[in-house]
Structure formats: structure tokens, C-alpha cells
Amino acid sequence: MTNPDPLLEMRNLAVTFPVDDGPDVRAVESVDLTLHEGEVHGLVGESGSGKSVTARAILQLLDDARVTASELTFESVNLLTQSEEEMRSVRGAEIGMIFQDSLSALNPVMTVGEQIAEVVRHHTNTGESTGTLSELRRKYVTGTDETSASWERSVELLDMVGIPDASTRANEYPHQLSGGQRQRVMIAQALAGDPSIIIADEPTTALDVTVEADILAELRDLCDDFDVSVLLITHDLGVVAETCDRVTVMYSGSVMEKGLTDSIFTHPSHPYTEGLLQSIPEYSLISNDSELQTTPGSAPDPRDRPNGCPFRDRCPIAFDACSEPLPTHSITDDHIIRCHDYARDRTEDVSSKYQETQEIEVSE
Ligand SMILES: Nc1ncnc2c1ncn2[C@@H]1O[C@H](COP(=O)(O)OP(=O)(O)OP(=O)(O)O)[C@@H](O)[C@H]1O
């Protein structure tokens, strides 16, 4: 199977936050990631692993950090050399963003319909003003022009993301909607710029599981309908299993394993990925009557990370070579692992893992 064309290419991304009176925070070290056309790509890892920093580096939203990469391109354009003005036209129109906390991301004093209409006006040529002072005053004093093309598009988008009675709800303010509805508004707002990519940073973490499942299914369908690729940031491998075509597993600023979701779930090869899988009931490699396992310990401080594999102090199979720089091994063309153990005894370890996991089903 050939992969669709890459939209976003990242090679050797490193992000460091300088600190005046102490060691720098090495938030991200050497991350490679490719987002292909039409795919939903999960970026997964525990808190502090560098997922959000990676996402913000793509959009050049890290004023206080040093960002380097041997490649960071969107549709072959080098994002690292874009001016702030050029990046402003990339954000929203080319790469949209959905944040976890919709209450702080949305404007509390503007109706949700107007917030989406504003994005439509900003990114598409509706012939309407994008907001002079008098325009803004008119909007707040006299209300929104409900006959405008941007308002109509806003209502249409709200309807598409599953807000019932969208033409009425469009006139409501964020606090009048439930958490799930606000996340749907954020999805509509991201789609309003007609982007090629949406970066969704923990978009359903604050929601209960049934609402989460509905919204993720909706996001997946909308991406197919709108032909948008998604980088979905989550700490939850269950979400990845339900939603993503491909997954990159991060730990303490580095990629540990990545590949097609089916491959990662049926043949997890990095001890960290195995630990993540064992901590969720549906995919645990251990029998149902045993206790679910979590990997003991915590991630190293990014100001004082040991050399070599950052997982080695928690890893059940660590050995001397793990203090050397992380290697990269291809298990297949679509499955990569960064682990010294893979080279140590590949035949025995991997083939036995394949036998253990072959009965596990992965949800479509
Ligand atoms: N502005 C900043 N200044 C200094 N350190 C930062 C800054 N922003 C993030 N970091 C550090 O960078 C590391 C990675 O943070 P990041 O937010 O990317 O993690 P994450 O994987 O997204 O975690 P979470 O799931 O909790 O959001 C963390 O150690 C964090 O404390």
C-alpha cells in the first residue's frame, strides 16, 4: 500500500525554553513526524511528554522558546522561515486549531455564531468587512447581520457539527452551551477557515465518555467530508484506537514508537507503548482477572534528563546500551521503534510478542 502525499513534514524538531537562573527546559528533542493527506494522526504520551509544545512549534506559537528542526514544512513551505505575518495566514486558513479548554478559547462576550462568522470573513472572500471599529460597534449595539453570507455559513457549520436548532443556538454565548456543544463550536470554528490540517489538542478530555465518543466520531466524519487531515493530541490510547489511522508515541520529549494504528496495537514493540496498552482494559496483554498495570516511576525532569533513552530508569528491560543515544529501527515500512533492545534480540523478542498479541482485536 502506498501512503498518501505528506502535507506536513517534521524532522529533528527540538524545542528548548531558556531559563535565566537555571538549566534550560529541553521540552522536545529530535521529533520526526509526517502527517499525510486525509489521515487522522494521533500524538500520544503522558502529561509533559511534549505533545502540545510540538503542536505549538508547528504553528510558531512559542515566542519564549528556541525551535530548531532539520525540516518543518507544510505543503513543502518551510514554516521555520515564515514571517509572523505569513504565519498569521497559515494559522486558521491552512492549519486550524482546536483547544482543550473551550471556555477560555472562545470569546465570552460574543455569540458563538458571530465568532465562527468572523473566521469565515477573515479567511474567505465574502466581500464583508472583517471588523473595523464602527463595524464592531454596530455588531455589539445592534446585533449581528443575520442575512450576511458569513452568518449563513456559520449556521451551516454549526448544523454540520451537530448543534441542534443551529440558527437559534448561533445567537447564544459560550456559557449558555454545554461543554460538548462548545467543543463542537470549536470544531466549526476550525473548519470555518477551510484548512488542510486541524490540530486538535486534547479536544475531548474534559467531557464524559459518551459525549467524547460522539464528538470524536463527528470529527472523523467531518474530516472525511471536508478533506482535512487531523493531528489529534491525546494522552488516551483508547481515543487513538477509535479515531486514528496512524499514531506517534512520545515520552519525555522524544518519539518512542510510531506507525499505523493497527500495527502499533497488534504489535506494540516499545516497552513504554506496551505499558500504555496494559493500562487500558480493552487492550491489556494480561488476562482479565489480573490487575491492570501501570509503569512505576515518573518521567525525568526536562532540565536534567539523563543521556540516552529517557525511559531507561522505568524500563523493565533496560541494559547498558540504553545510556547511548536513541537508535531508530524500522520494524516495517510503516512501523518505527526507538529502542536499543530491538537490535539486541530482535528475532526472539518481537516474534514472541507477535504470538502473544495476535488474538487482540483493534476497533475500526
Ligand atoms: N513556556 C514554557 N516554559 C518552560 N517550560 C515549558 C513551557 N511550556 C511547556 N514547558 C515544558 O515542556 C514540557 C512539555 O510540555 P507539553 O505541554 O508539551 O506536554 P504535554 O505532553 O502536552 O502534556 P499535557 O498532556 O499535560 O498537556 C513540560 O515539561 C512543560 O513543563
TrEMBL record:
GO terms, molecular function: ATP binding; ATP hydrolysis activity
CDD domains reported in the protein's UniProt record: ABC_NikE_OppD_transporters
Cellular compartment(s): Cell membrane
Record has Cell inner membrane as a keyword: yes
A Gene Ontology term for the protein's cellular component: plasma membrane
Pfam families: ABC_tran (PF00005), oligo_HPY (PF08352)
UniProt keyword terms in alphabetical order: ATP-binding, Cell inner membrane, Cell membrane, Membrane, Nucleotide-binding, Translocase, Transport
Protein name (database record): ABC-type transport system ATP-binding protein (Probable substrate dipeptide/oligopeptide)
